[in-house]
Amino acid sequence: QVQLVESGGGSVQAGGSLRLSCAASGRTFSRLRMGWFRQAPGKEREFVSGISWSGSSTYYADSVKGRFTISRDNAKNTAYLQMNSVKPEDTAVYYCAADDSPRNFATSIAYSYYSQLGSYDFWGQGTQVTVSS
């Protein structure tokens, strides 16, 4: 089992910044692919960003590209989501997710893999982010 604990959420004004953290335990962190998803009230959970085992490959939804940055520190067993230039439409509960599958896949399908909820085996409890205009 993998335990994931998110932190860093809160309220921020539009144009501001937040950094979310996801602390993982229960598995070798460097063998976990990590993802961030979000869910706004009345909407489905959607992909935000994903990062490979080593951090060398990152993936972003178009809605956050250029504003959010995903990273990881394998020595600290922690993944991060730096959120800059936030907008009111970024308001949601943000979830950290982990995939412990050892499978490899072609680069051409990587974004599809990372962006699917079903690719992840473990989920955190979520952290609320509220952006006011």
Quick summary:
By secondary structure, the protein is mostly beta strands.
What does this structure look like?
- With 133 residues, the protein is mainly beta.
- It has one helix and eleven strands, in the order βββββββββαββ.
- Strands 2, 4, 5, 6, 9, 10 and 11 form a seven-stranded mixed sheet that branches. A four-stranded antiparallel sheet has the order 1-3-8-7, with no helix packed on it.
Give the SSE map.
Elements: E1 3-7, E2 10-13, E3 18-25, E4 33-39, E5 46-51, E6 58-60, E7 68-73, E8 78-83, E9 92-99, H1 110-115, E10 122-123, E11 127-132
Parallel strand pairs: 2-11
Antiparallel strand pairs: 1-3, 3-8, 4-5, 4-9, 5-6, 7-8, 9-10, 9-11
- CA gyration radius, whole angstroms: 14 Å
**Biggest beta sheet summary:** 7 strands, mixed
Structural class: mainly beta
- Portion of residues within helices: under 10%
Encode the helix/strand succession as letters.
Answer: EEEEEEEEEHEE
Tally of alpha and pi helices: 1
Described by the principal axes of the CA atoms, the overall outline is: globular
Range of strand content: over 45%
DSSP E strands, number: 11
The parts where pLDDT drops under 50 for at least 5 residues are none
Average residue pLDDT: 96
End-to-end Cα distance, whole Å, is 40 Å
Keywords:
1 helix; mainly beta; four-stranded antiparallel sheet; 133 residues; globular
